[in-house]
């Protein structure tokens, strides 16, 4: 499967997944709001979500995917190794889930220690229903990343659509049975079970979808405990550094959650942070993951075959292609920050509180896209030790600056924490590029950086025009903040305006990367 077609399959699934994910968030906000009860559910549901993020970006990407790529090229196509890998992963995930369930009250106190006792009690009740997601999230990531490594990209991108459909139905049922509520009072065991159980049932559904596609891959999916002599020992050495990376990221996240929990109530806090991150993840997943994931597979293949010129060529090509799309996505969404935030908030006032948080995240969109490629190049070479060290530097910076952020007034606390995250991510990128250059030599980044400079210059007037549309319609007092549907329409109008001007400017200057973009678009919509 070529890169264009693989990217189009991932992008199509990701687009539908993210759009249905936004609908899921809208229904959830209608059910429990974005402040008191919304914060409690966010903290509980974020515990297994954090595990998924750490597993996917750490152990799976850094250790397992390169290994699966290697064994898939063997004569048996991995039929012996992969069932053993799935069995070992399931055993570890079951143990981790059981331990988390036992420690649920302590985990809640760790991540949300500054919530009121009533809020912590509700969060713990939600957590008992959400923590089983650890097992299913882990299996979803393990099966999905293994399918990606075998160049079967579509199921991993499309399965979350099923999750979102289940969640939309469940949260809609909650509204029909219990009505909408935002406060901490009146939460019966049945109401808690419906919200928390719906979230977990959606994750189970998407694992079932992947299991069906895994069987079609021709690899048997059966328990196999004969682990001796299959190479788990060498993977364990790599996983040691990945585990350290997981712990650093976890500590930083715990500090961030605790600091933000002080703002819970009437100010932007955890739920606002999480929903702004969801909007940020739409372009990240649609662009960075859909384009970058096939490149990562190909970089892993070139690295395994010691084809350094091809590795460098893929690094440069992927950064230029990502930059073309990411720059305008970040600028367009920043111009539409308030209408975009209105999609997941109940009032225009809440949208204006959430907009700066979203903008703070969007500043990091381009650096994180480049870091995606740089970090995965280390993984392609079987190096998880070096990413641990630049992640450690990031973690120390995040913890230190987040603690300093506690000094700012509560209304500005969450946006300050988001800004700290962005600043530290940019520093991490600079360090990662320097370390990769030391490892494999000059990276040839002059051409990609020059291209990104052109993209930024074209995006500035495009973004200004989009923001002008927002102001022309009344800004914070205009129709774009009137409802979530008007917010979505306003976001689309602003982004369309900015995107059209951006493409026009690049076309006028005959930017060569537009040809690559055109091929991707044709591959995506040509069928």
Task: Note down, in words, how this protein is organized.
By secondary structure, the chain is an all-alpha fold. Helices cover 81% and strands 0% of the residues.
How would a crystallographer describe the biggest sheet?
none
| Helix content class | over 70%
Structural class designation: mainly alpha
Mean of residue pLDDT? 83
Overall shape: it is globular
Q: How many individual β-strands?
A: 0
Query: Measured on Cα atoms, how large is the radius of gyration?
Result: 22 Å
Please write the string of helix (H) and strand (E) elements: HHHHHHHHHHHHHHHHHHH
- Terminal Cα separation, in Å? 15 Å
List low-confidence stretches. Answer: none
Count of helical stretches: 19
* Tally of structural domains: 2
Please state roughly what percent of the residues sit in beta strands, choosing from under 5%, 5-15%, 15-25%, 25-35%, 35-45% or over 45%: under 5%
GO molecular function: lipid-linked peptidoglycan transporter activity
Protein name: Putative peptidoglycan biosynthesis protein MviN
Subcellular location: Cell membrane
Transmembrane segments: 21-44, 50-73, 85-106, 126-144, 156-179, 191-214, 235-257, 277-296, 317-338, 350-374, 386-406, 412-436, 448-472, 484-509
């Amino acid at each position: 499967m070529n890169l264009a077609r693989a990217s189009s399959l991932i992008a199509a699934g990701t687009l539908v997944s993210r759009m249905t994910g936004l609908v899921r968030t809208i229904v959830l906000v209608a059910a429990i709001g974005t402040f008191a009860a919304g914060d409690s559910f966010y903290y509980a549901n974020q515990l297994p979500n954090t595990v998924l993020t750490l597993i996917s970006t750490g152990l799976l990407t850094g250790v397992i995917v390169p290994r699966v790529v290697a064994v898939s090229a063997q004569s048996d196509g991995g039929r012996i190794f992969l069932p053993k890998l799935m069995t070992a992963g399931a055993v570890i995930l079951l143990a981790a889930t059981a331990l988390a369930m036992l420690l649920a009250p302590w985990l809640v106190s760790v991540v949300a220690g500054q919530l009121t006792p009533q809020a912590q009690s509700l969060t713990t009740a939600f957590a008992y229903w959400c923590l089983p997601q650890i097992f299913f999230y882990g299996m979803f990531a393990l099966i999905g990343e293994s399918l990606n490594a075998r160049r079967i990209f579509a199921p991993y991108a499309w399965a979350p659509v099923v999750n979102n459909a289940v969640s939309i139905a469940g949260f809609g049922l909650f509204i029909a049975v219990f009505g909408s509520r935002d406060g901490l009072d009146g939460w019966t065991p049945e109401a808690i079970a419906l919200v928390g159980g719906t979230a977990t049932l959606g994750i189970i559904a998407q694992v079932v979808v992947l299991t069906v596609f895994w069987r079609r891959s021709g690899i048997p999916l059966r328990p196999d405990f004969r682990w001796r002599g299959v190479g788990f020992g060498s993977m364990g050495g790599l996983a040691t550094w990945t585990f350290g990376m997981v712990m650093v990221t976890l500590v930083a996240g715990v500090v961030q959650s605790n600091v933000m929990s002080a703002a819970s109530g009437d100010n932007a806090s955890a739920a606002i942070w999480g929903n702004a991150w969801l909007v940020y993840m739409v372009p990240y997943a649609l662009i960075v993951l859909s384009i970058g994931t096939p490149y990562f597979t190909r970089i892993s293949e070139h690295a395994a075959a010691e084809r350094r010129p091809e590795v460098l060529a893929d690094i440069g090509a992927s950064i230029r292609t990502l930059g073309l799309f990411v720059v305008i996505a970040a600028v367009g969404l920043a111009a539409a920050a308030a209408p975009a935030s209105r999609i997941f908030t109940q009032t225009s006032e809440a949208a204006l509180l959430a907009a700066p948080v979203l903008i703070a995240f969007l500043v990091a969109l381009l650096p994180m896209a480049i870091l995606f490629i740089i970090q995965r190049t280390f993984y392609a070479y079987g190096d998880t030790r070096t990413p641990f060290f630049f992640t450690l530097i990031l973690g120390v910076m995040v913890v230190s600056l987040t603690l300093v952020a506690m000094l700012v007034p509560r209304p500005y606390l969450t946006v300050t924490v988001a800004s700290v995250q962005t600043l530290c991510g940019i520093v991490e990128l600079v360090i990662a590029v320097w370390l990769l250059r030391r490892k494999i030599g000059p990276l040839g980044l002059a051409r990609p950086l020059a291209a990104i400079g052109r993209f930024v210059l074209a995006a500035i007037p495009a973004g200004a025009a989009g923001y002008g549309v927002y102001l022309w319609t009344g800004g914070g007092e205009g129709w774009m903040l009137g409802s979530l549907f008007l917010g979505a329409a306003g976001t689309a109008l602003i982004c369309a305006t900015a995107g059209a001007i951006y493409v026009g400017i690049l076309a006028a200057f005959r930017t060569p990367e537009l040809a690559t973009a055109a091929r991707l678009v044709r591959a995506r919509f040509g069928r």
